[in-house]
């Protein structure tokens, strides 16, 4: 009978791992029970007031505040904390709502730190804000038996319009850089194109010069060969024939070109005679002028030779001989 009464007077309880149990005796704190099996003699007024988890816990706090440049932002902080086994009684009895207490301290620190910073500085100094929150929580919560393991500022969310404006500023800056690079590339292309055109025109000029030189050489050879092979012809006759031949070649080219502009020129049989007459008149006028120059030069030389006492400059004598040499 006594053994049965003793069995009813005693009670066994189980405390899980990473958990402690708070034992009271007649409503007063008695001790902290570690994980395992424990006997609880309720007949002596002992009971379990509750259990306290020692696991790491996380609390996410979203706080709205304003930056120094008057931009409202939502700062999201993540607090990782746990109860200390050696201060389990303080953690159990001193705080009724741990999460609300931590949230209040986070609000206080964030709303005191962020208004001192501009929006860009707030993004750059996230670690400094997190460190300030962690230090303040460590001092406050250690008295209640809690340890602040880590504090993170996981996000800073400005208003949607502010984010859109920031993205537009960034996009405009990148477009400006892209425009500068594009303009520089176009500049290089224009320079290279101009250099290529200059080189092309230089080479084209060389080709035209060589072409004209070849034409002149060919005409000279033709005139000389015709004068030698056909006795009694002069260089003037040969040039007349060459010019008339070139006239007909030009007429042929104009008629063969389908995209050429309209050109009105004499095309009857008398046109050839007129062209030859015009060329002949031009040559005769040139020959007459040349004969006049030669006559004056010969006359001057004869006068100087007949009057050797008269002073003449060597330049006059050389110039007269040079004129005669050109005509001959």
TrEMBL record:
Record-linked Gene3D superfamilies: Band 7 domain
Regions annotated as coiled coil: 123-195
CDD domains to which the protein is assigned, alphabetical: SPFH_like_u4
Source species, domain of life: Eukaryota
InterPro entries in UniProt: Band7/mec-2_domain (IPR050710), Band_7 (IPR001107), Band_7/SPFH_dom_sf (IPR036013)
Keywords: Coiled coil, Lipoprotein, Myristate
Stretches assigned to the Band domain: 10-170
Function, in words: Positive regulator of hypersensitive response (HR)-like cell death. May be involved in potassium ion channel regulation.
Protein name: Hypersensitive-induced response protein 1
């Amino acid at each position: 009978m006594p053994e049965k009464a003793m069995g009813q007077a005693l009670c066994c309880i189980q405390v899980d791992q990473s958990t402690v149990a708070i034992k009271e005796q007649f409503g007063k704190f008695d001790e902290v029970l570690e994980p395992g099996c424990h006997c609880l003699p309720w007949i002596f007024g002992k009971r379990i007031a509750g259990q306290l988890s020692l696991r790491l816990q996380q609390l996410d706090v979203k706080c709205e505040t304003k930056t120094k440049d008057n931009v409202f932002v939502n700062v999201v902080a993540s607090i990782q904390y746990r109860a200390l086994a050696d201060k389990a009684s303080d953690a159990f009895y001193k705080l009724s709502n741990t999460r609300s207490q931590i949230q209040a301290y986070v609000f206080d620190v964030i709303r005191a730190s962020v208004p001192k910073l501009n929006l860009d500085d707030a993004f750059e100094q996230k670690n400094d804000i997190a460190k300030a929150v962690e230090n303040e929580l460590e001092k406050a919560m250690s008295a209640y038996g809690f340890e602040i393991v880590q504090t993170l500022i996981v996000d800073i969310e400005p208003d949607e319009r502010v984010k859109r404006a920031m993205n537009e500023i960034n996009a405009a800056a990148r477009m400006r850089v892209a425009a500068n690079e594009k303009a520089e590339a176009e500049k290089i292309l224009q320079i290279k194109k101009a250099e290529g055109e200059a080189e092309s025109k230089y080479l084209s000029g060389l080709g035209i010069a060589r072409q004209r030189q070849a034409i002149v050489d060919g005409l000279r050879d033709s005139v000389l060969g015709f004068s030698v092979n056909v006795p009694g012809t002069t260089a003037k006759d040969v040039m007349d024939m060459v010019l008339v031949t070139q006239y007909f070649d030009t007429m042929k080219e104009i008629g063969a070109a389908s995209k050429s502009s309209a050109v009105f020129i004499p095309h009857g049989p008398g046109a050839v005679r007129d062209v030859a007459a015009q060329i002949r008149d031009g040559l005769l006028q040139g020959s007459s002028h040349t004969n006049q120059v030669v006559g004056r030069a010969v006359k001057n030389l004869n006068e100087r030779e007949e009057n050797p006492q008269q002073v003449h400059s060597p330049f006059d004598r050389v110039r007269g001989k040079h004129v005669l040499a050109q005509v001959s």
